[in-house]
Specification:
The chain is mostly beta strands. Helices cover about 5% and strands about 40% of the residues. It has a single domain, classed as Jelly Rolls, CATH 2.60.120.700. The protein is built from three helices and 25 strands. It has a 22-stranded mixed beta sheet that branches. Strand 18 and strand 19 form a beta hairpin. The longest helix is centred in the N-terminal third of the chain and has 11 residues.
Length: about 375
């Protein structure tokens, strides 16, 4: 008996059931709940005893098992995937909250040589992190980011009178294209007249749609989370009444052991470009925002991307490693005066250390 995840759609009324389809799985019962949130569907837990490691390809497709890295080509990446799959059947009811907030493409990128072949230093008004660019990536691709959710606060000495926002995510596209397929966490801080509050949630988005907050897994500061984003291929997709969801996001909170999978589709006329992959802390577009959250420091323990459908040449990319024949961009977020406000240190190929800078860290600093 399949267990459908409980779903509450805030401000949304109609809910129906669909299946995560594959060539061999059309006859199986439905396990996905679509919603009136534009092009977002929720994948339910598999039946008791389901093992994503031993399941057939049709079963894996039916339950939206994320693509696995090749254990021979990328053994460390495969080990991270194995860890995330240990929580695959640990699901809880979820809540979907549509927003008018956007985690969008990189804005105002300026680059300069670093002195190291294949590495460029860049600045942006909304992104900090690393991005691999330089070719049109395979249309079927997956990206993983693993990081510790930071604590939200406002700049030292500041009480802005409103909310500061930040989002942390791995994604495909957005560095030179108008779309981004992504998922991650939101970390916000509020202060007014001495009253303070914080807000944490997971979310999914295929820009130019706005992001959707999701209630499962529940997110808390200090949690280590695994986020995998991928583009579904023609034999492995979410389907409902002729609507085919072309992307998916798997979220696993290692700290609580709870996971969830969401299927996504872009707005009409938007297609995956495949020109970049990235691991990002962003100052998102939110009406009324008083600035970037002072997250202080955030550690990313691993991140990698690959063309999983291309079994002969999967083209693995790592968030802190200069790729062969391509470029790795090290991106500093700056304010309107060119001052750094969020940066990243590349410790090694599998470890990034983000930190807030300037007036976002301490209000006494110039902005």
């Amino acid at each position: 008996m399949k267990l459908i995840v409980g779903v509450t759609i805030v401000g949304v009324t109609s809910v129906a059931l669909i299946s995560f389809a594959s060539v061999a799985a059309h006859a199986q019962p439905p396990v996905v709940t679509p919603t009136d949130v534009p092009r977002v569907a929720v994948v339910a837990a598999p039946p008791a005893g389901f093992n994503p490691l031993t399941a057939s390809p049709a079963e894996r497709a039916h339950y939206a098992v994320p693509p696995a890295p090749d254990p021979k080509i990328a053994p460390k990446a495969y080990a991270q995937w194995l860890r995330a799959m240990a929580d695959f059947d640990h699901r809880e009811p979820t809540t979907l909250v549509p927003t008018t907030n956007f985690a969008g493409p990189m804005r105002n990128l300026k680059t300069q040589p670093s002195g190291t072949a294949g590495l460029l230093y860049g600045t942006s008004s909304n992104w900090s992190g690393t991005s691999v660019v330089g070719e049109t990536f395979a249309k079927v691709e997956s990206i993983v980011g693993i990081f510790t959710v930071p604590a939200a606060r406002q700049a030292m000495g500041a009480c802005t009178g409103g909310w500061d926002y930040s989002v942390q995510w791995p994604g495909i596209d957005g560095n030179g294209s108008g779309d981004v397929l992504q998922g991650g966490t939101q970390v916000d801080s509020y202060c007014k007249s001495g009253s303070t509050s914080t807000f944490y949630t997971a979310w999914v988005e295929w820009f130019p749609y706005s992001w959707t907050n999701v209630g499962s897994p529940a997110i808390s500061p200090g949690d280590q989370v695994y986020v995998q984003v991928w583009v579904t291929d023609p034999s492995n997709y979410c389907e409902s009444g002729g609507t085919y969801y072309k992307g998916a996001v798997y979220l696993d909170d290692y700290s609580t052991g709870i996971s969830a999978t969401y299927c996504l589709d872009p707005p009409s006329g938007t297609t995956l470009v495949g020109n970049s992959v990235e691991w990002i802390v962003e100052d998102p577009s939110v009406s009324g925002s008083t600035g970037l959250t002072n997250y202080v420091e955030e550690a990313w323990q691993d991140g990698f991307a690959w063309a999983y459908a291309n079994t002969e040449f999967p083209n693995y990319h790592f968030m802190g490693q200069i790729p062969a024949y391509l470029q790795l961009q090290d991106i500093l977020m700056t304010d309107g005066e060119g001052n750094g406000i969020s940066g990243v240190s590349i410790e090694n190929g599998a470890y990034l250390d983000f930190e807030t800078l300037g007036c976002v860290y301490n209000s006494a600093n110039a902005c």
